[in-house]
Amino acid sequence: MKTDQLINMLSTNLEPAKSGQLKKTLALTLAAGGVAAFCMMLATVGLRTESAFNLGYLALKLVFTLILIGSGAALLGKLIHPGQDGRKLYAVIFGSFLALGLAGAVALARTPPATWHPMIMEGQWGMCVVCIPLFATVPFAALIWALRRGAPTNLRRTGAVAGLVAGALGAAAYAFHCPDDYLPFVALWYGMMIALCAWIGAMLGPRLLRW
């Protein structure tokens, strides 16, 4: 067979890539990962007692994590295809961390230095360090499975964003248990654990997403 004939044969009956199907799979995986993280929270530490619930601070934690989940998921929807990027979405992610960090710094600046240690280190910071990555494990595995159905080319970056989204899902689930409402606590421990999940995803991405 001649080269021209082979090219003509391969170029006939081409079907467009099912971009919509990939995004649908990613969305369903995201929802399933969120449910899994919430169920893990219920099975391990349980909901925060009703008397200790502060809806305002819970809403703050959820707004932060949901912004990361939404922007990260939109970014994965681009990274799952070759050659696509979403620089504006990176700005949203970094801006969210920066805004929460500044809010925590302002909260510290408005209180006496003697109260800083309880606002940052006391409470259940150790539980936060364990639970957020733990609750992120199933969402991360599910996202990796979904991403392997596409064709990401920047595997380290895609893994990092998958870890970020999984960490944010784990943090959102943990927020329903977390009794610590100080802004500096949320900025430090939530932010640091989500960043840790993103770093782990960046390390594992090239291995787990390799074609």
Which SSEs are present, and which pair or pack?
Elements: H1 3-10, H2 19-44, H3 55-79, H4 87-109, H5 116-120, H6 125-147, H7 155-175, H8 183-208
State the shape.
globular
End-to-end CA span: 30 Å
Uncertain ranges: 9-17
Q: How many β-strand stretches? A: 0
The secondary-structure element order is HHHHHHHH
Tally of discrete structural domains: 1
For the biggest sheet, the summary is:
none
> How many helix segments?
8
| Range of helix content | over 70%
Rounded mean pLDDT score: 88
Q: Whole-number radius of gyration? A: 20 Å
What structural class is derived from the secondary structure elements? mainly alpha
- Could you tell me the strand content as a percent range? under 5%
Please summarize what this structure is.
The chain is mostly helical and 211 residues long. The chain has helices spanning 3-10, 19-44, 55-79, 87-109, 116-120, 125-147, 155-175, 183-208. It is 74% helix and 0% strand.
Explain this structure to me?
By secondary structure, this protein is mainly α. It has one domain. The protein has 8 helices and no strands. α2 (19-44) crosses α7 (155-175), α3 packs antiparallel against α7 (155-175) and α4 packs antiparallel against α8. It is globular, with a radius of gyration of 20 Å. Residues 9-17 have low confidence and may be disordered.
